[in-house]
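Appendix C reproduces, verbatim, an entry submitted by the partner laboratory led by Prof. M.T., so that reviewers can inspect both the input and the predicted structure.
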Amino acid sequence: MIPLQKLEPECFYWATLKADREAPAEVVQVSTIFGAEREYWSIARLGSDEHRMLADFEFVTKIVPPSSKMSLELAAE
């Protein structure tokens, strides 16, 4: 799991909702809509206008864009 301190603004992550352990992982985005400082970040649930607190989720892995250097390195392996 990724600690909350390691999250990056505007990035996408696979995450699970802590309150519903049976729910499948979903793609979420760390949103800065309420402010750029970490204390104002929220989690945007894709496909809805719902925002939740960071602490409501467990973050499994960061999703990297296909054109990023990191994804190109992974593809080369």
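Helices lie at 69-76. Additional entries are available on request from the coordinating office.
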